[in-house]
Design a protein that fits this description.
234 residues, alpha/beta, Nucleotidyltransferase, domain 5, two-stranded antiparallel ribbon
């Protein structure tokens, strides 16, 4: 985040969750193995990769980080797979009061330049037969916000491909095996290592660049040896 202090970038971010069990097999709603992943589509940079139970606190943590990204962004679009908490919590964090000079209570909207698009899951028709749109904006957006998103671009396919890659590379997310994490802290450690390698070390096969380099955070990627020599700033 410090590297973006003097940069204002457009961001098209995909949001999704991935499930695995932790310690023992429990109901998905009780599992602590849900990581929320927020990925920039153009550079494949991972803004967020934090795990926990699939509840409000986990989504709130991710949206708080996205709120900080919005401070350094001229145009940000968040695309989700149907989870309404993305849009609702982002609306709580970065909503503005729209003052038009007219009488009555001013309307609240998302901040100028911020867009959220949600995929409607389940049946596409209401009980009375009216067809729902496949994608919609869950909360009001600022009237001066540009709306250049095509319907075909509203998807999280790139993040779905990343989830498939994560299942191949991280043993804790492999299906039909007993290699689950022993506790949430250990699982988060694995995700943190994967986050560092993905963002700052490995060249992505589609962009042909290290994601942090493609985003403009670094001039060149790190080697694993350089990562181990980095000092943590308190």
């Amino acid at each position: 985040m410090f590297a973006l202090t003097h940069q204002f970038l457009p961001q098209l971010i995909e949001g999704d969750e991935l499930y695995t069990r932790v310690h023992k097999n429990v109901a998905p709603d009780e599992s602590q193995g849900w990581p929320i992943v927020l990925m920039d589509r153009a550079t494949r940079f991972l803004w967020e990769m934090h795990c926990g139970r699939k509840e409000r606190k986990l989504f709130q943590h991710a949206m708080a980080l996205l709120g900080k990204v919005i401070q350094h962004t001229s145009d940000l679009t968040l695309l989700t797979d149907g989870e309404r908490r993305y849009g609702s919590l982002l609306f709580e964090i970065c909503s503005d009061v729209l003052r038009t000079g007219q009488r009555g209570r001013p309307k609240k909207t998302l901040r100028k330049g911020v867009k959220v698009r949600l995929k409607n899951k389940g049946a596409q028709r209401h009980k009375r037969g009216r067809k729902r749109p496949k994608y919609h904006a869950p909360y009001p957006e600022h009237p001066d916000t540009a709306q250049p998103i095509a319907t075909t671009d509203i998807q999280a396919n790139h993040l779905e491909a990343f989830n498939t890659s994560l299942r191949r590379r991280c043993a804790a997310y492999r299906r039909r095996t007993n290699t689950s994490a022993k506790n949430q802290a250990r699982l988060q450690e694995r995700l943190d290592v994967y986050w560092i390698v993905h963002n700052f070390v490995r060249v992505h096969f589609t962009t042909r660049q290290v994601p942090a380099v493609a985003l403009g955070v670094l001039e060149s990627g790190f080697s694993l040896k350089e990562v181990f020599f980095l000092q943590k700033i308190a």
